Amino acid sequence: MLGLILGSPILLVLMVFGYVDTRSPLFCQQRVGRNKELFTLVKFRTMRPDTASVATHLADVSAITRFGHFLRRTKLDELPQLWNVLLGDMSLVGPRPCLPNQVELIQARQRLGVFVVRPGITGLAQVSGIDMSTPDLLAETDARMLQAMTMAYYFRYILLTALGRGAGDAIQRRPDGG
After folding, report:
1. DSSP β-bridge partners for residue 41
2. Per-residue pLDDT of the chain (178 residues; tens, 9 = 90+)
């Protein structure tokens, strides 16, 4: 709640720029949460509104807007997820929530018991540059994070994310260079 209150001026400014950029500044998408329950994740839109709803590593880099590149680079596109934290769907730190159609990742996380916790805005995989394009490695990293989680690690992942550690989900370039 405090994050939303303190961040509201920044959120408002980003909403205005996002509206100018795409006329649709927020992006809502169904994601898999704790106990494999679906919830609606909220982010700032970084891609054109007509872009197919696929995992980021399957999206085309040309779909990202100029403002979207800025949001992704600074990780400000994640700020609206504080609403998901307030609602209890997410935590600040935990495994990133996946899409319901990412079957391989869901199965790997189920095997490793990752779904017993709320998904997070950031975590070990994110600050290590591991994304959803490597489902088994991602699930193993998530499980390793959960087994070793302490308050110190929790705040370390938040700090590393705020300092720009990790590249976020990789977006594939088209063979023609786009």
Report:
1. 29
2. 677 788 889 999 999 999 999 999 999 999 999 999 999 999 999 999 988 777 667 777 888 999 999 998 888 999 999 999 999 999 999 999 999 999 999 999 999 999 999 999 999 999 999 988 899 999 999 999 999 999 999 999 999 988 887 655 555 554 444 4
Tokens 């609206």 correspond to 80
Angle between helices 135-148 and 103-112 (to 10 degrees): 30
Q: Which two tokens stand for residue 5?
A: 């209150």
Q: Which amino acid is at 157?
A: Y
- For residue 37, report the phi and psi dihedrals to the nearest 5 degrees: -85, 140
What pTM value is reported for the model?
A: 0.86
State the number of CA atoms in the 13 A half-sphere of 107 facing the CB. Answer: 5
Structure tokens at 129: 């540059």
Tokens 């977006």, located at residue: 171
Query: Which residues are within 8 A (CB) of 50 and not within 5 positions of it... i.e. 6 or more apart?
Result: none
Q: Is 77 helix (H, G, I), strand (E, B) or coil?
A: helix
